């Protein structure tokens, strides 16, 4: 049987960037956000759009449309649309496509006018949500993530204060990011005192909706040396699926899909859950990162929130005696739309809170100031024994899609990570 | 009567017996005739054994509150009920879970706890549509 281990370090992230601006952009269509991100990321790689022959995107715009709009005819397209994690899943798909020669230069793009809704089709309910959720007042991710959260509180005694600490930690990362939507410091009291939206969540527990685009360029390792910047090797990828409708989740407090995705990524990378210097988790809701840590086996069941207690996951808390030396949720906008992503430098942006919508993007260098001290050790070679980063986009897990994981080598772009 | 919430839509053929049952104040659940698995939401194939021979049973209407939320705002344009209201995931005594509302309860986290016993109440919206809501049970 074919083994993904054979693809370890076979492909690299060579370019990442975002749309020219992110935030509230009523003057830009969703397609424009895509195109800005793609052209910026391709330029970051030192390549031309005409070099791109593989297009990967999810959501309302098909990869064929992106190719058309860019004026290219890609040899390979992937439009896997499975929720927020689609774009991280596509890192794995791109690695496989590159390995098999289906394309030579792969671009994963996201664009989403989530806040302004420019050039966006109206959302349609599926027959399942329309029959079995909407009549009871459910609508959007906050009304689903909250269920997981109250159940976790019931089973493990997790408190509102502990969830709030996740938002406080995240905000400290956002404060270092010039593009973040909210950069003022917040306290646990601020979170607990913010407007109640849907118990157990107040406004500051919930992700921020933005307009944003982002893209990542990957190519095979042998071609990466031709690119402008030092490559980030993709050491492991994984994806998994458990449920779509929340009622079908076997255990609300544990994401089986995240466990599966992590297990695959760890196996391919040849590492275990405790081998990481730094972890990035998508933090759509404050309960997400702790439960992902638990599902990945990095924290014990019910103890994920401890990683966020007392500033341990803040930029200055990286040396704390946690199994990993650092743990952030999205380092971008702390409320929250833009989140962590694939490679040692990519950041995923979500543009909408709707659970079916999603976004992804790469980051540009200034954002990715993570606490990973170890990543200061840089090398062209993918032979370091500890992966710098693992990124999990579990955005699907509460509402059901396929989470995925990407662990990357500590590549040259780890320089982006230095404080 | 003014309809104060979104009507279920579209009603799919495989779920029609569920909605038909509610009109008669019966909570029906699909049950696999091959392996006996009771499941929800309705679908054409048993999620446990893949059999296609699916029948229906009348549920007891009893269960527990598996998880809940208290909505302080409206998340759906067609929702006309004034917040706060309680969103519920109920685990039925027969096994499956379904989304609903917890009614006849103070919408206050101190008054609601996971695993509290609940029972169905039928809420008629139109001549066609009755919804299964739940209230605290003793
Ligand atoms: Zn069966």
CATH homologous superfamily label of the domain at 4-121 and 210-223 in chain A: Thiolase/Chalcone synthase
What's the CATH class of the domain at 4-121 and 210-223 in chain A, please? Answer: Alpha Beta
Order of helices and strands of chain A: EHEHEHEHHHHEEEHEHEHEEEEE
Number of separate domains of chain B: 1
Order of helices and strands of chain B: HEEEEEEE
- Overall structural class of chain A, as computed from helix and strand content, comes to alpha/beta
CATH domain fold name of the domain at 4-121 and 210-223 in chain A: Peroxisomal Thiolase, Chain A, domain 1
**End-to-end CA span of chain A:** 43 Å
Keyword list:
heterodimer; A: 419 residues; Peroxisomal Thiolase, Chain A, domain 1; 10 helices; 14 strands; 25% helix; 17% strand; disordered C terminus; B: 138 residues; five-stranded antiparallel β-sheet; 1 helix; 6% helix; globular
Description of the molecule:
The complex is a heterodimer of chains A (419) and B (138). Chain A is α/β, with parallel strands linked by helices and 419 residues long. Residues 319-390 and 393-419 of chain A have low confidence and may be disordered. In chain A, 66% of the residues are buried. Chain A has a domain at 4-121 and 210-223: Peroxisomal Thiolase, Chain A, domain 1, CATH 3.40.47. Helices cover 25% and strands 17% of the residues of chain A. The longest helix of chain A is centred in the first third of the chain and has 15 residues, at 30-44. In chain A, strands 3-2-4-7-1-8-14-13-9-10 form a 10-stranded mixed sheet, with helices on both faces. With 138 residues, chain B is mostly beta strands. Chain B has one domain (13-136). Helices cover 6% and strands 36% of the residues of chain B. Chain B is built from 1 helix and 7 strands; from the N terminus they run H-E-E-E-E-E-E-E. Chain B has one helix at residues 16-23, and strands at 28-32, 54-58, 62-71, 85-92, 97-102, 117-124, 130-136. In chain B, the strands form 2 sheets. In chain B, strands 5-4-3-6-7 form a 5-stranded antiparallel sheet. In chain B, strands 1-2 form a two-stranded antiparallel sheet. The longest helix of chain B has 8 residues, at 16-23. Chain B starts with 15 loop residues before the first helix and ends with a strand. The model of chain B has no long low-confidence stretch (mean pLDDT 97). Classes of the chains: A alpha/beta (419), B mainly beta (138). At the A-B interface, helix 4, helix 5 and strand 5 of A face strand 3, strand 4 and strand 5 of B.
């Amino acid at each position: 049987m074919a083994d993904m281990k054979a693809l370890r370090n076979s492909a690299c992230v060579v370019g990442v960037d975002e749309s020219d601006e992110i935030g509230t952009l009523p003057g830009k269509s969703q397609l424009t956000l895509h195109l800005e991100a793609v052209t910026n990321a391709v330029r970051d790689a030192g390549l031309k759009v005409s070099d791109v022959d593989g297009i990967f995107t999810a959501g309302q715009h098909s990869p064929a449309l992106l190719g058309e709009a860019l004026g290219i005819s890609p040899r390979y397209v992937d439009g896997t649309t499975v929720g927020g994690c689609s774009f991280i899943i596509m890192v794995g798909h791109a690695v496989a496509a590159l390995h098999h020669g289906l394309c030579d230069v792969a671009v994963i793009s996201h664009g989403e006018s989530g806040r302004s809704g420019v050039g966006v089709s109206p959302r349609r309910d599926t027959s399942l949500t329309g029959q079995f959720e909407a009549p009871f007042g459910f609508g959007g991710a906050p009304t689903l993530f909250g269920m997981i959260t109250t159940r976790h509180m019931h089973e493990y005694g997790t408190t509102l204060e502990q969830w709030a600490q996740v938002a406080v930690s995240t905000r400290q990362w956002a404060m270092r990011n010039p593009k973040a939507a909210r950069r003022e410091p917040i306290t646990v009291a601020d979170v607990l005192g913010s407007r109640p939206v849907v118990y157990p969540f107040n406004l500051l527990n919930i992700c921020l909706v933005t307009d944003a685009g982002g893209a990542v360029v990957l190519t095979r390792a042998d071609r990466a040396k031709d690119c402008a910047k030092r490559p980030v090797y993709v050491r492991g990828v994984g994806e998994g699926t458990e449920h779509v409708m929340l009622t079908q989740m076997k255990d609300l407090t544990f994401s089986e899909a995240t466990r599966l995705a992590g297990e695959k990524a760890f196996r391919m990378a040849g590492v275990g859950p405790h081998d990481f210097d730094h972890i990035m988790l998508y933090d759509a809701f404050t309960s997400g990162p702790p439960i992902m840590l638990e599902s990945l086996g990095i924290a014990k069941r019910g103890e994920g929130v401890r990683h966020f207690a007392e500033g341990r996951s803040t930029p200055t808390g990286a040396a704390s005696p946690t199994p990993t030396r650092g743990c952030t949720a999205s380092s971008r906008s702390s409320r929250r739309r833009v989140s962590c992503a694939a490679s040692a430098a990519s950041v995923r942006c979500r543009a909408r809170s709707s659970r079916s919508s999603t976004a992804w993007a790469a980051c540009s260098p200034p954002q990715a100031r993570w606490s990973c001290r170890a990543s200061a050790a840089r090398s062209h070679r993918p032979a370091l024994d500890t992966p710098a980063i693992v990124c999990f986009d579990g955005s699907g897990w509460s509402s059901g899609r396929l989470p995925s994981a990407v662990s990357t080598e500590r590549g040259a772009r780890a320089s982006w990570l230095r404080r | 009567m003014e309809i104060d919430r979104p009507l279920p839509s579209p009603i799919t053929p495989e779920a029609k017996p569920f909605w038909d049952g509610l009109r008669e104040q019966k909570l029906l659940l699909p049950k696999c005739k091959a392996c006996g698995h009771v499941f929800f939401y309705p679908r054409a194939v048993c999620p446990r054994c893949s059999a296609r021979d699916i029948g229906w049973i009348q549920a007891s209407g009893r269960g527990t509150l598996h998880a809940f939320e208290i909505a302080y705002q409206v998340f759906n344009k067609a929702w006309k009920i004034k917040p706060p209201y309680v969103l519920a995931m109920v685990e039925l005594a027969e096994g499956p879970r379904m989304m609903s509302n917890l009614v006849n309860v103070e919408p206050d986290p101190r008054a609601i706890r996971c695993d509290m016993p609940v029972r169905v109440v039928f809420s008629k919206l139109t001549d066609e549509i009755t919804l299964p809501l739940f209230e605290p049970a003793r």
